[in-house]
Each structure stands twice: as structure tokens, then as C-alpha cells.
Inverse folding.
């Protein structure tokens, strides 16, 4: 009896779980760094707009 | 101060740990993958087939290392959780919680490959055998810890609660280990002995040891990567994370 199908299925499960284990934290890190970059850009924009209008006057 | 002690203190600093994990996780994954690739190649194509089980025994080279990892990772998680509970070290909380999904992954591999191996050898995909059932309970414990950690908003309180569950769950480990001795089990008894003589032919052992070492090194890479992600999540909003976010494209190229 050939057990090739069982062996391939078992190694496939192993490969898929390890691939998920490799990819999942990297996707999360990329998302977190992207959020940090957006936050930094938003804060920089807020600082820039407050320095353009230090008295906080309303535009006419 | 002793350089090793100083390094341990530095590692507790979130930005330092981030740099450390970003640097060493890819190396650990790479080395682990290379060692496992050699073990798989040997296990699939070089080692002779078993005289009773034929080629189906080759599943052993992923099943046994994964089973050992499922137990070892849980034990390590409990150690980190205990240190975090006693000394309130934030990094240990992070490391303990990073262990849970990796251990769950290895437990899932153990159960799935065992089931696939069981079908041609036992004639069934599943049996409520003591070893299989306790390993399934281990998977539920891992999932419970992950769920509990994400169910509480306060990260530190969540890690303490989940860590406590990990510490209590350690009682399951000897039950899994000795289940084949304590009860009549469909699962075979201990075949591989770390210190004494194994029941397997010596020619079949080198790929197994390679897989054991490979999965351990791979685990180090995964632990660092997952701990880094959790560390960044907890520190989101801090200046060093914002600066890191601004340099992220540069880091991606590295």
C-alpha cells in the first residue's frame, strides 16, 4: 500500500502552519509601523498648521 | 556591572528589545529553516522505509518534533509568566504571550499529522485515546490563553490573567507525557530516548535530531518576531515607535 498521499498531506500541514507562523507577525509589525508613520505625519501636520497661525485667528 | 547582567537590563528596554528582535529573528528563522530542510530531505529521501509501517513512518520527522515543541513551548510560557507575575517584568509578559500562538501552531501540527498518520496505521482519523485527548486539551488551553489575553483591554492585567492560566495549565504536561504509561493507549509508548538507547534504528535518528534542533531555532525566530509585534503594539504612540515608523521604508529595504 502506498502512503504517499498521507505523507504529502502531513508535510503540507507542517509547511502551511509554519508559513502562517512566519507571515502573521510580519504583517502585524508592518501594520503597526504604518500606523506609527501616519500618526507621526498627522502630528507633524498639526504642528506645522499651528506655527502658521500662532494666534489661532480664524481665516477670513 | 557584569556585561551579561547589563545586557539583560538593556533587553528590558522596549526600543532596545525592538532592535534586538528585528536583527535576530530573520537569522533564527533562516538557520531553523536550513536545518529543517536538511532533516526533511534526509527523512523523506535518504532514510530507508520502516519494515512494518513502510513510508508512512516518515511523518514521524514532523510529528515528534512538533509534539515535543508543543510541550516545551507551554513550559517556557509558564516560566515567563511566573517571572512576570513575581517580578513584574513587562518583557516576560510579552514573551509569555508570544509563546501561546506558536505553541498552538505546533500542537495543531501534532494533532493533524498524528491524525493523518493514524488513518493508515490504526484505521481511524481520531480516537479518544489518553494521549490524543490530552494533546487536544493542550490545544484548547493554548486557545484559552490567547483568548483571555485579547479579551481584556488593559494589556498588563490581560497578560497576568493569561499567565496565571498558563501556570495552572502546566499540570497537564506530565499527564500528556506519561499518558501512554498510565493508561492503556492506542498511541505507541516512548520510542526515542534522549539519554538512553532509542528503540528506533540509529540510521533513522539523524534527521529526527535535525528536525528537533531546527524547530527549536525556528521557535526562537517566531518568538522574537511575535514579541516584537506585541512590544510595538503596547508602545504605540511613544516617540521611539513614531520615529521607527518614519524610518520603516528604510528598514524594509534592509
Amino acid at each position: 500500500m502506498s502512503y504517499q498521499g498521507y505523507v504529502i498531506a502531513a508535510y503540507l500541514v507542517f509547511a502551511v502552519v509554519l508559513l502562517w507562523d512566519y507571515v502573521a507577525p510580519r504583517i502585524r509589525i508592518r501594520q503597526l509601523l504604518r500606523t506609527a508613520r501616519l500618526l507621526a505625519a498627522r502630528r507633524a501636520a498639526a504642528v506645522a498648521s499651528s506655527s502658521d497661525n500662532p494666534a489661532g485667528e480664524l481665516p477670513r | 556591572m557584569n556585561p551579561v547582567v547589563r545586557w539583560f537590563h538593556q533587553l528590558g528596554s522596549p526600543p532596545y528589545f525592538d532592535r534586538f528582535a528585528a536583527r535576530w529573528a530573520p537569522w533564527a528563522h533562516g538557520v531553523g529553516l536550513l536545518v529543517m530542510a536538511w532533516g526533511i530531505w534526509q527523512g523523506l529521501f535518504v532514510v530507508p522505509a520502516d519494515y512494518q509501517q513502510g513510508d508512512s513512518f516518515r511523518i514521524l520527522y514532523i510529528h515528534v518534533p512538533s509534539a515535543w515543541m508543543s510541550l516545551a513551548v507551554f513550559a517556557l510560557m509558564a516560566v515567563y509568566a511566573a517571572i512576570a507575575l513575581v517580578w513584574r517584568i513587562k518583557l516576560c509578559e510579552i514573551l509569555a504571550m508570544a509563546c501561546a500562538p506558536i505553541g498552538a501552531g505546533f500542537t495543531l501540527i501534532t494533532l493533524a499529522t498524528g491524525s493523518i498518520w493514524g488513518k493508515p496505521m490504526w484505521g481511524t482519523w481520531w480516537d479518544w485515546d489518553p494521549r490524543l485527548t490530552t494533546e487536544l486539551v493542550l490545544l484548547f488551553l493554548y486557545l484559552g490563553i490567547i483568548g483571555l489575553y485579547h479579551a481584556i483591554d488593559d494589556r498588563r492585567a490581560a497578560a497576568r490573567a493569561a499567565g496565571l492560566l498558563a501556570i495552572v495549565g502546566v499540570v497537564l504536561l506530565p499527564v500528556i507525557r506519561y499518558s501512554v504509561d498510565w493508561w492503556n493507549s492506542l498511541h505507541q509508548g516512548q520510542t526515542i530516548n534522549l539519554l538512553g538507547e532509542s528503540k528506533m534504528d540509529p540510521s533513522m535518528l539523524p534527521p529526527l535530531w535535525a528536525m528537533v534542533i531546527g524547530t527549536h531555532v525556528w521557535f526562537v525566530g517566531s518568538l522574537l518576531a511575535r514579541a516584537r509585534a506585541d512590544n510595538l503594539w503596547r508602545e504605540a504612540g511613544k516617540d521611539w515607535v513614531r520615529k521607527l515608523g518614519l524610518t520603516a521604508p528604510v528598514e524594509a529595504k534592509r
Observations:
- The longest helix of chain A spans residues 4-52.
